[in-house]
Specification:
- Keywords: Membrane, Transmembrane, Transmembrane helix.
- This is UDP-N-acetylmuramyl pentapeptide phosphotransferase/UDP-N-acetylglucosamine-1-phosphate transferase.
- This protein is mostly helical and about 290 residues long.
- The chain has one domain.
- The chain is about 75% helix and about 0% strand.
- Helix 3 runs antiparallel to helix 10 and helix 6 packs across helix 7.
- The longest helix has 27 residues.
Length: about 290
Amino acid sequence: MSLARDVLAPALLGAGATAAAATVLRSRPPGGPGRWERRNFAGRDVSLLGGAAVGAGAVAAPLAAALVTREPAVARTLAAAALAAGAGAGMGLVDDLGEGPADAARAKGLRGHLGALARGQVTTGSLKIAGIGAGALLAAALVTPGRGTSRLTGTLAGAALVAGTANLHNLFDLRPGRSLKVAAALAAPMLLAAAPTAAIGACTLGVVGAALPADLAERTMLGDTGANAVGALVGTALAAHPSRVLRGSALVAVVALTLASERVSFSAVIDSTPALHRLDDLGRRAPQR
């Protein structure tokens, strides 16, 4: 594995693409800046344009890295990551801009959206589940080796891992910087893996590095667009990892955390655990008094 080609270049592409997208979006916000403004947990007005920039960077960086690599297997895996991130960003954008207050009140979480669908109500959240799931399935098919039943099983497990990780990052996006910190913590060890996984991890760290300052300062927020996109990158890196034990353990952890989120508040657990609370609060602006 080449450090410059497989780690440094993708990280720079991730940071550069995200920063460039943020600059363009700020100068010409589609529909005007008001369309992207939201009120965050602390009552401050923030912009979803940060999440849109993360989505753009999460797609552009692995695509660009795929074009410059000389290894077909690495290029295919990077293309899969771009596909998964694109599905996450695109469907997250539908949810961010298309869901009204009444929709949010009726259906919350995975159980809420699936329950609404069972009653014949198609929410933007249920559309997001279907769209991200389809993108995850295609991405997993690209990164899963083998043939026959073994490849089919691996593809389905990989799709669940990619989609579940994308959703999990959205569940963590309840406080400034939290979801991006989770993405960085998961992506950093990937740099030690084989070239395809390391390259996706590096892209993720580049995107996070460019987006984290504005997110922590509460000038922007990820929304579903950014959280699902960066989570899909992390999920694809995990699905492409050569260790079957790691892939299986990651899937079990993602499913367990997703199910737990229906009954337990992640914020409450983090706030009540001193070490997690310190990490979660690191770099965040002081609360209003």
